[in-house]
Design a protein that fits this description.
It contains 12 helices and 9 strands. By secondary structure, it is α/β, with parallel strands linked by helices. The protein has 2 domains: 203 residues, Vaccinia Virus protein VP39 (Rossmann fold, 3-Layer(aba) Sandwich), CATH 3.40.50.150; 63 residues, Orthogonal Bundle (Helicase, Ruva Protein, domain 3). The relative contact order is 0.11.
Length: 279
C-alpha cells in the first residue's frame, strides 16, 4: 500500500464517492506513475498548467507544488466540492466546472500570462481522441501535452506514419507534434481497475509542421478517407469517397512514382502532403 492509495481511499470514504463509469473515471493510486507524469511534464514556476479531469485531485496536488498556476477543468460536479476543499488555500489554483470540449482554451491562456503553457491529464478513454485533436487543431500556444490514455490508443498516437500500428490520428498528431512514451501503466494502478492497460505519453508541440500543405483541411480529409477504407487500395478508397477520381489519383501516384496498389497505411506523411497538393 502506498501513500497515494491510502489518500485516495480516505477521500472516497470521506465524501462517499464512487467512480462514475459513464464519465470514464478511474482514480490513479500508483505513486510511481504519478511521479513519472509530473517529472516528464518538466513543470516549473514559470508554467501555466491546464489539467483536464482532475477528479479527486491526486495529480493536482503534485502539480500545484511545481507550477506557477494550475487551472483544473472538471465536468463532474461531485468532484468540485472535493477539489475546492483540498486546494482552497492555494493561491495558484483555479477550478472550472465544465466540459473541456466546450471550454475556450484560447481565452483562458490569453488571460493568464505565463512563459509557457502545458497540458496534463488522465484522460477519460471514451473521449481521448476528440480531446487531443481539440488541443492540436486549435493551434493553442502550448508547449507540451502529457496524458494518460489507453495503451492501444497510445501506440497508435505515437506511432510513425507508415508503420503498421498507425491510423489517421497518427498523421494528425505527427503533423502537430513529436510524441514519445513515458511509462506503461497496468490496470491495478487504478480504482476501479479499467478493462485495459494504460500508457502515459508526451507530445511536444512543433513550431512548424514537418510538411508544407496548401490546404490543411484537404490534407487531413484525404488521410481520413484513406483510413476509412484501409483494406482497400488507396486509389479505390479515395475514388469511392468521391474525394477525387480514380484516374486523377492514379495519374498523381504515377507522377510521384508511388505504387498504384499501395494502401493508405503505407503512405508517408510527405507523400500524403504531395498528393493533397496535387489534387
Amino acid at each position: 500500500m502506498n501513500d497515494t492509495y491510502i489518500e485516495t481511499m480516505n477521500i472516497m470514504k470521506k465524501y462517499k464517492i464512487k467512480a462514475d463509469k459513464s464519465l470514464g473515471q478511474n482514480f490513479l493510486i500508483d505513486s510511481e506513475v504519478l511521479e513519472k507524469i509530473v517529472n516528464s511534464s518538466e513543470i516549473n514556476e514559470k508554467d501555466l498548467v491546464i489539467e483536464i479531469g482532475p477528479g479527486l485531485g491526486t495529480l493536482t496536488n503534485e502539480l500545484l507544488e511545481k507550477a506557477g498556476k494550475v487551472i483544473a477543468v472538471e465536468l463532474d460536479k461531485r468532484m468540485i466540492k472535493i477539489l475546492k476543499d483540498r486546494f482552497i488555500q492555494y493561491s495558484n489554483f483555479e477550478l472550472i466546472n465544465d466540459d473541456i470540449l466546450k471550454v475556450n482554451l484560447k481565452d483562458i491562456i490569453r488571460n493568464n500570462q505565463y512563459e509557457s503553457v502545458k497540458i496534463v491529464a488522465n484522460l477519460p478513454y471514451y473521449i481521448t481522441t476528440p480531446i487531443i485533436m481539440k488541443l492540436l487543431e486549435e493551434k493553442l500556444p502550448i508547449k507540451s501535452i502529457t496524458v494518460m490514455v489507453q495503451k492501444e490508443v497510445a501506440d497508435r498516437i505515437i506511432s510513425i506514419p507508415g508503420d503498421k500500428e498507425c491510423g489517421a490520428i497518427t498523421y494528425s498528431v505527427f503533423y502537430y507534434s513529436t510524441g514519445n512514451k513515458i511509462i506503461d501503466v497496468p490496470k491495478d494502478s487504478f480504482i476501479p481497475a479499467p478493462e485495459v492497460n494504460s500508457c502515459v505519453i508526451k507530445l511536444n508541440i512543433r513550431r512548424e509542421p514537418p510538411v508544407k500543405v496548401n490546404d490543411e483541411q484537404k490534407f487531413f480529409k484525404l488521410i481520413k478517407v484513406a483510413f476509412m477504407q484501409r483494406r482497400k487500395v488507396f486509389a479505390n478508397a479515395v475514388a469511392n469517397s468521391g474525394f477525387a477520381s480514380k484516374e486523377n489519383i492514379l495519374h498523381i501516384l504515377q507522377e510521384l512514382k508511388i505504387d498504384e496498389k499501395i494502401r493508405g497505411e503505407k503512405i508517408t506523411i510527405e507523400q500524403f502532403a504531395k498528393i493533397a497538393n496535387m489534387i
